[in-house]
Design brief:
Layout (H helix, E strand, L loop, with lengths): L4 H4 L17 H17 L6 E4 L4 E2 L8 E2 L3 E5 L9 E2 L10 E5 L5 H15 L3 E5 L10 E7 L2 E4 L3 E2 L5 E5 L4 E6 L2 E5 L10 H24 L4 H8 L3 H9 L1
Helix pairs in contact: 4-5, 5-6
GO molecular function: endonuclease activity
Keywords: Endonuclease, Hydrolase, Nuclease
Pfam families: Uma2
Length: 244
């Protein structure tokens, strides 16, 4: 029996996992989560921006070994949806425009040598590295922009309060270090990007601050209705506070 060419083809498998659990230090894991969540929230109203991290990114069709797994990455011009892995050829050849690697002892050499070469060949416009402990990178935060196929350092700025800041043209955001902790900021407003956990904590703190202001406003002679209006609280909630 003669087999057709299609029958002779072996299916190429692109694993979604390497079969081993992710082993990260607490700082590396925390900043990986912060990076993905804060950027995902920031771009939540854009259906054409995909934010992910620690996900296999395959960049050559038919070659499963041609793979990287950036800690945090952002792709512009593709559908925002859940993926088990990212295959460049299935995404109209769109590659990440921004990559952040959270460097540790086990990833330092790869982050400094191997990955920049791969990202440059892929056309990743900006490549950032951050070392949460400050033990493996000097300086602790680095940013590079792709210029004629090679990465050139992005100059860091020292803000008046002593904070180190590097601007990402791709994201339109600043990456800043506060006592060694990385945070994203909107440069125009100075607003800090928060993770889901930080957003919830901020909400709870704001609600508690409004409740704490109730007795002070009542002591000033404001009516229940005026207090509720000024604090953006339901009138019934102010009344419940008085009854407690």
């Amino acid at each position: 029996m003669t087999l057709s060419a299609n029958q002779l083809k072996t299916e190429v498998i692109y694993p979604d996992s390497d079969g081993t659990p992710m082993a990260e230090s607490d700082p590396a894991r925390d900043y990986l989560i912060y990076g993905v969540e804060s950027l995902d929230i920031y771009f939540q109203d854009r259906d054409d921006i995909y934010v992910s991290g620690n996900l296999f990114l395959y960049y050559k069709n038919g070659i499963p070994s041609a793979v990287v797994a950036p800690d945090v990455f952002v792709v512009f011009g593709v559908e925002k949806k859940k993926r088990l892995s990212y295959k460049v050829w299935q995404e109209e050849d769109k590659v990440p425009s921004f990559v952040l690697e959270v460097t540790s002892l086990t990833t330092q050499e790869n982050d400094e040598e191997d990955k920049p070469k791969k990202y440059a060949l892929l056309g990743v416009q900006e490549y950032f590295q951050y070392d949460p402990t400050g033990d493996y990178l000097s300086p602790q935060l680095k940013g590079s922009s792709l210029v004629e196929g090679k990465y050139q350092p992005i100059a860091a700025k020292l803000l008046p309060d002593g904070v180190t800041s590097i601007h990402s043209e791709v994201l339109g955001l600043d990456l800043r270090l506060f006592d060694g902790e990385l945070r994203f900021f909107e440069p125009q407003t100075g607003k800090k990007l928060l993770s889901h956990k930080e957003t919830e904590q901020a909400r709870q703190a704001a609600e508690q601050a409004r409740r704490d202001a109730i007795p002070r406003l009542l002591e000033l002679g404001l009516s229940v209705e005026q207090v509720a209006s000024s604090l953006s609280l339901p009138v019934d909630e102010v009344r419940r506070f008085i009854q407690e």
